[in-house]
Design goal:
single chain; alpha+beta; two-stranded antiparallel ribbon; two-stranded antiparallel sheet; 45% helix; elongated
């Protein structure tokens, strides 16, 4: 596996985690968004990831190794519960005085955010390690 492949794999993983963080931010930002109808309440977003396998088969003589990248296939709306609250003074309340809020689990979203951040940081470490390995090879070339 060439260093290029490692950069591509880590880069696609970082991109996927960035999309994941963006959807989490949207979910948290809209957790308290009110609507006058249950259907108008915000629905949380979730990215759909897919593994994309490289075309290379394992072949030591050709220095070819299999690889797998991650891609964001889609960002979907996840229908969830809707919280109905009686707020007759809210300008968005319906004729019965009810307002509808998305049933977003803020604790779950925060946990997802920490997981996505850690995954992103791990891939940054992969890139830093590859960079360090390449610099070590360059030093060997200069000394040898």
């Amino acid at each position: 596996m060439a260093f290029n492949d490692i950069y591509n794999i880590a880069g696609t993983a970082m991109n996927a985690q960035t999309v994941r963080l963006n959807t989490i931010a949207s979910n948290l930002a809209n957790a308290d968004a009110a609507s006058s109808t249950p259907n108008g309440a915000y629905q949380s977003l979730k990215p759909v990831f897919a593994t994309i396998y490289g075309k290379n088969q394992y072949d030591v003589q050709k220095n070819s190794y299999p690889s797998a990248e991650v891609r964001v296939v889609d960002v979907i709306q996840v229908p969830g519960s809707v919280d109905k609250k009686y707020e007759p003074n809210n300008p968005l309340s319906n004729e019965d005085g009810f307002v509808f809020y998305p049933g977003i689990d803020v604790v779950s979203e925060m946990t997802d955010m920490m997981s996505a951040s850690r995954s992103f940081e791990t891939n940054v470490e992969v890139l830093n390690n590859v960079k360090s390995m390449q610099q070590g090879l360059l030093r060997l070339g200069r000394e040898g």
